[in-house]
Each structure stands twice: as structure tokens, then as C-alpha cells.
Amino acid sequence: MGIRRTLKDIFKAIYKSIPLIRTWNWSRLFLCIIISCFIWSFQALNKDNYHSTINFPLVINYERQDVVALEEPPKFISVQVSGSGWRLLQKTLGFGITPLQIEIEDPTQVKYFTAKSLMPDIVQQLSDVRVDFIAEDSIHLNYDSTISKQVLLFIDSSKIPLAKNHRIASHIFLDPDSLTISGAASFVRAEPDSFEIFLNENTLDENYDEMIDISYEPPRKVSFYPQGVQVKFDVDLYFKKTITVPVKPLNFPQDSSAYLARQLAVVEYDVRRTNEMLTIPDSLSILADYKNRNMNDSTIEPTFQPPSFMENVKIIPEKLILIFPKKLSDKRKNRYRSE
Fold this sequence. Notes:
5-stranded mixed sheet, about 350 residues, about 20% helix, alpha+beta
């Protein structure tokens, strides 16, 4: 009850004083407060033996140009200093501080250096204050050499979407046929030696000649060029055809002790629409060389040299059967004798 009564009296007093507060000159009041703060600040800054931490700027310089920083080197180190308030305020705002230049011949060979080694140069620059200590124990560096590497570009023809009965009818040309990647040696060496190009097409039924953006995503600290590749190849409609071709025997016995069971064979092949009307040579034949016979099953595997416009050639039958009349007659004689 006592606490409630006290709070109630305080609120009543505040409420009664509101009319009086409204009559105050607030602009003068704020001006007085600001002037008082300035006076207090000036008096405080004139005092000595303050402590503060300032960020002292660093610049790493090196002679080698073929290097890259895998991690950016520190641009500041934390230095604990003491002195008058004015001096520390100036240093905190960066007045009178020149970045410390650190010269390194080959940064790839230097992994770190101690902050203590920087103390003489920092003390010389901050001669108007006392340098107590440097917060960091050491400054770490992570640099790597830069190299370039060629990455072969390729297209998997089996992944190219083609319309029904259409095929790629030429070599796939890529210009350029490789990427040049450059950057940190450790990352460049880890990259694969080839990169696959994909076509953003639904189905193709005509010749293709387009510039494609290369979707290669290099690791950090690595760049590549060019950004695109020209892809060009022919696409044509193919038809399946069959013809009957005579079989030409080679090196067969003169005494007719062996001959072929058939003198004709069927050649099945595919032909491009642009080559459909080309004439088949009359001299076209299938060769059956007796020297290449297989005595286990009495067959010969035929050979055929088709014209260049024939593709996916298939000979039917795949093997030609040999007939040996003398052996047949011997078998018959033996059968008759047994009877």
C-alpha cells in the first residue's frame, strides 16, 4: 500500500507540473546542454593517460606479378596505444597515420610474419603517443602462383536431340575447340582436362550453326575465356534401303570340290536424303575368299566395300555356307555300305 501511495503522489506531481513545463524555452535549454557537453568534452580530452585501440593500416607489396591471393591479406592490425585524449582521437580518426608498407619478394614463399617485427615502424609513426602492444601475434599470408591451362571442349553426339529418322551427317565443329582457364595454380591443376557442351534444343531436323554460351563455372580465383563457342554440324533425313548384290568367289578350288550355297546376298543400308538418287555401280559385289573359310562350321564371312553414300551397312546372311560335293558323296557311299 505504501509503494502504491508513493507512485500515486509522484504521478500527481508530474501531472500538476505539465503546465509549467510547457512554458519552458526548450531551444535555449538544448543549446545550454550542447554547450555544456562541448565544455566537458574539451576538458576531458585535455587529460592524459587514456587508452585506446586503433586500426593501423597495412599494405603488402611484392615484386612477383604472377601471383594471386587465395585469401586477402589483412589491411589493418589492432594497436593498443595510450596518451592524451586529443592525440588518441586524432589517431582513431586516422589523422597523421600513413599505411605501413611491407615489402615481400615472393609472397608464395612467406606464410606469415610476426607482428612484433612491425613494432619499430609503428612506434616511429606513432611517436606522439605510447604504443603499448599489438593485439595480433602474427600476420598470415596465403598466396599462390598463377598458371594457364587448355581445357578441351566436346559434344556427346548421342545427347543431341534429333527428329525421327534424322541423324548428324557431318563432323561436329567447335570454334574454338578449347577453353583457356587462368588463375591460382592449385585450383587450375585440379580442373578436368575436358568440358562438355550441351545444346538447348528440343529436336533438330535441319543443319545447326549457333553460338552457345559456355556454362563453365570456374572455382574461385580462376577465370576463363572465351565465353561462347560456335557449334556447327549437318543434320539430314535418312532412309533404309535394301539391294541384292552378287557374291564373287575368290581362291576357290579349280576342281569344284567346294562352292558357295548361294550366289546372291542382300545388302541393307541407310542413305541420306541428299544422296538418295545416287546410282549404285553395276560392278558392286560381295567378296567370299576361300582362304578365310571357317572349317568348323563350313562358312565364309563375306567382305564388302560399299560406296561412300551407304551407311550402317549390313549383309544378309552374315555368313555364307560352303558346299563340299566330294564329302557329301563319301558320306552317301558309307551310308549305303552300312545298309
